[in-house]
Give the backbone structure.
Amino acid sequence: MTTAISIKLEGEVKITPENKCSFCKGATCCTYFTQAIDSPRSMADFDLLLWQISHRNTQLYRDSDGWFLLINNPCQHLQPGGRCGIYQTRPQICREHSNDDCEFEGPSGEEDFDLFFRDYDSLLVYCRKKFNSWEAHLRKLSNSKKKRARRKKDL
Ligand code: SF4
Ligand code: SF4
């Protein structure tokens, strides 16, 4: 079945899968990519994620398909107006991307995910709640680093 959304554009125009992309202003699907990751379980796993999410334009979410890093960087081939600069030779993943249930109306928001971490601070709050011993874990890491440095000095 074809889903048709009606929008106003010099009258009533039916948006179909065939013409949908030509009406899309932001081409949101070309402005980010996601990377599936193993489900984090341990404090070390979350510690690593805190480092990853500390990098600019990186977010993290969990949905029914699992955990993903979300990297909000537009593709370098995206042209002003939303066209693809290498359309004829674009990668396979772009050819296979379906505009069914895409971000035509705008980027996904927090409400679209089971868990969503927009930045380092939001993930840190989650870590502190999830692990009672989070602060102790950090102190332990810091102490072992100091011990290693002292041992080096004594050599
Ligand atoms: S797939 Fe969706 S978000 Fe991407 S250009 Fe087409 S309508 Fe826009
Ligand atoms: S190569 Fe083209 S279709 Fe693929 S993400 Fe970049 S701009 Fe979009």
